[in-house]
């Protein structure tokens, strides 16, 4: 048998070697590309053995959460300023205070529509301050647009429609006076059912300790809360500052406190100075809509 020349055998060896090197390089590149995580991409989480909880089986545990910051929900104070609708100056000062506030606007006042629109445009919250019948109407006139216990149901709904039409920016309602009306479960049910159909929440100003406002609202599935502190029953500066500090302390301890004040000069001045006290207590000022449940 005739042997091939040495030159031919050498060429064949080189061809085989080159092919082997080519395929080795190709498969190496493929393997690296499949299993290497490029720089900048997240590394997949480590897999753990399955546990008894099907929702978390096979996944790494989440890192522990940082402790809640002082301004997270839980230490919240909602301040409502009642009786808005007559004077612009205190509203302008409160808007400039740089604190979330809720302004409750009375219907049918000289500047009702103008101030409600201005407050909403400034990014603050608007409520309707809905007049309701007090126990002694001779000494406490609730004013225009009031709900009375003697009104038929259809009249109550019509009055609410009129009052809401005066303040269309309103997100919710709280009662102006109403120590008699808020104790009448039947009439409150009619009024609050109407508020619910309009997508409004209700905050009970608690002008009467026996008010059924919150109880009826909860039964109807209407979002609600109750006033905890009146800031300015005593309109002296010292008393208002003391009540404001108390409201902040309660919010720090209990959370979700509602305080109600009025556009009095001393109340406005106290609110203008409250930022430091809020920060020290870790209390977050919020709108009334953020504390209703």
Do you know the CATH topology? TIM Barrel
Mean pLDDT, all residues: 83
Number of strands: 9
Assign an overall shape. globular
Query: For the record, what is the CATH homologous superfamily label?
Result: Glycoside hydrolase/deacetylase
Fraction in helix: 25-40%
The CATH architecture classification is Alpha-Beta Barrel
Beta-strand content: 15-25%
* Main β sheet profile: 9 strands, parallel
| Low-confidence blocks of residues | 26-71
Number of domains: 1
Number of helices: 9
Please state the structural category.
Answer: alpha/beta
**Spatial separation of the terminal alpha carbons:** 102 Å
Reading off the top of the CATH hierarchy, the class is best stated as Alpha Beta
Q: In sequence order, what are the helices and strands, one letter per element?
A: HEHEHEHEHEHEEHEHHE
Features:
9 strands, alpha/beta, TIM Barrel, 293 residues
What this model shows, in words?
It is a single chain. The chain has 293 residues and is an alpha/beta fold. It has one domain: Glycoside hydrolase/deacetylase (TIM Barrel). It has nine helices and nine strands. The protein is globular and about 50 Å long.
SSE order and pairing:
Layout: H1 6-35, E1 76-84, H2 89-95, E2 102-105, H3 112-121, E3 125-132, H4 153-166, E4 172-177, H5 185-197, E5 201-204, H6 213-220, E6 224-226, E7 229-230, H7 237-254, E8 257-261, H8 265-272, H9 275-281, E9 284-286
Helix pairs in contact: 4-5, 5-6, 7-8
Short description:
With 293 residues, the chain is of the alpha/beta class. It has helices spanning 6-35, 89-95, 112-121, 153-166, 185-197, 213-220, 237-254, 265-272, 275-281, and strands spanning 76-84, 102-105, 125-132, 172-177, 201-204, 224-226, 229-230, 257-261, 284-286.
């Amino acid at each position: 048998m005739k042997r091939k020349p040495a030159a031919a055998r050498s060429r064949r060896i080189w061809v085989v070697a080159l092919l082997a090197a080519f395929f080795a390089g190709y498969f190496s590149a493929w393997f690296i590309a499949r299993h290497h995580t490029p720089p900048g991409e997240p590394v997949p989480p480590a897999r753990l053995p399955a546990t008894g909880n099907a929702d978390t089986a096979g996944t790494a545990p989440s890192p522990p959460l940082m402790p809640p910051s002082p301004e997270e929900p839980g230490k919240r104070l909602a301040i409502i300023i009642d009786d808005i609708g007559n004077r612009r100056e205190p509203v302008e000062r409160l808007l400039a205070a740089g604190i979330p506030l809720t302004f409750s606007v009375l219907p049918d006042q000289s500047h009702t529509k103008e101030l409600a629109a201005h407050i909403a445009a400034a990014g603050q919250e608007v409520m309707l301050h809905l007049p309701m019948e007090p126990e002694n109407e001779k000494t406490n006139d609730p004013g225009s647009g009031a709900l009375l216990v003697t009104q038929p149901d259809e009249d109550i709904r019509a009055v609410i429609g009129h009052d809401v039409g005066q303040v269309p920016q309103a997100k919710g309602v709280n009662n102006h006076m109403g120590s008699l009306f808020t104790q009448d479960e039947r009439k409150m049910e009619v009024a609050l059912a109407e508020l619910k159909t309009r997508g409004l929440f209700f905050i009970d100003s608690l002008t009467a300790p026996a008010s059924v406002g919150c109880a009826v609202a909860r039964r109807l599935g209407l979002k609600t809360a109750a006033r905890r502190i009146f800031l300015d029953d005593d309109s002296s500066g010292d008393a208002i500052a003391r009540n404001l500090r108390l409201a902040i302390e309660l919010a720090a301890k209990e959370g979700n406190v509602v305080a109600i004040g009025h556009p009095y000069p001393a109340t406005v001045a106290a609110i203008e100075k409250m930022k430091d006290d809020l920060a020290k207590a870790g209390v977050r000022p919020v709108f009334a809509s953020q504390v209703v449940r």
